[in-house]
Amino acid sequence: MSSQQQTINIKQQALDILFEDNHLIVVNKKSSDIVQGDKTGDIPLSEKIKTYIKQKYNKSGDVFLGVTHRIDRPTSGIVLFAKTSKSLTRINQMFKDKEIKKTYLAITDNKPTENTGSLTNFLLKNEKQNKSFVYKDEKNGAKKAILHYKLINKSDNFFLLEVELETGRHHQIRCQLANISCHIKGDLKYGAKRSNPDGSISLHAWKIQFIHPVKKEMIEIIAPTPSENIWKEITSNIKLN
Fold it and tell me: What's the number of domains the chain is made of?
């Protein structure tokens, strides 16, 4: 067994699996995990899940696993994978048709002017900087970005926002909230004053709702928030559901 396989075997045991059937698997991603392989060479979540499936079901040969969407590495929370090509095709189409509802929780350093609201901007991604920039009006190459937010709690120094995405753009929540001076805790790239000790940002993919692509049943999955003290503090006196 190679050292890489050994690493996967050790780490896959820590997978936080929220839902699994013959067609789909949903995992609560740690902020340290990457969804797919990148230039860092770190073992991605997708490979850990393949190893888990291979070991659990004693599968020989390659394991199929379709990545239906991604969340940023420093972000925690729900990632949905397809275990069959049929479910992958259907889930991809559902994302395209905006039939999958994704809700995030964000801890910010400032309170929005309004307790509830919608943000509509045009975002232009800079590949070299791996960063998106906000424009009020249409600009060549920029994509329209829409989200809806609600202030649901606060602590002494921070505010907890529930954010629902209408579009899925690069760094959308991070970028659009920073544009209204609500910087996500730990997100130095978008204006936070200091980093989080573990390198995470306080953004959590909290809930996903969709019709099962094969069983045609309504599925709602909630990912428990991270164990860090800031999350415990800001959610201690409210019920998240």
Answer: 1
Alpha-carbon span 125 to 96, nearest angstrom: 20
Phi/psi for 227 (5° steps) reads: -85, -5
Q: Whole domain around residue 160: which residue ranges?
A: 3-235
pLDDT digits (tens, 9 = 90+) for 13-36: 479 999 999 999 999 999 989 998
Q: Which residue has the tokens 């770190």?
A: 42
* Domain-embedded: residue 73: yes
Residue 171 and residue 161 in contact, taking contact as beta carbons nearer than 8 Å: no
Burial of 1 (0-12, 13-18, 19+ CB in 10 A): exposed
**What is the model's pTM?**
0.91
Cα–Cα nearest to 87, from 37, 36, 21, 27: 21
CB half-sphere exposure, 194, CA atoms < 13 A: 3
For residues 179 and 186, the answer to whether their CB atoms sit within 8 Å is: no
- Token digits for 82? 């397809």
Q: Which residues contact 94 (CB under 8 A, 6 or more apart)?
A: 100, 210, 211, 213
Question: Which entry of 16, 21, 72, 137 is annotated as an active-site residue?
Answer: 72
Q: Can 109 be counted among the known catalytic residues?
A: no
Q: Which residues contact 115 (CB under 8 A, 6 or more apart)?
A: 150, 151
Measured from the Cβ of residue 97, the count of other Cβ atoms closer than 10 Å reads 8
84-140: per-residue pLDDT in tens?
A: 999 999 999 999 999 999 999 999 999 999 999 999 999 999 999 999 999 999 989
CATH number at residue 83: 3.30.2350.10
Exposure of 207 in the CB half-sphere (CA atoms within 13 A): 13
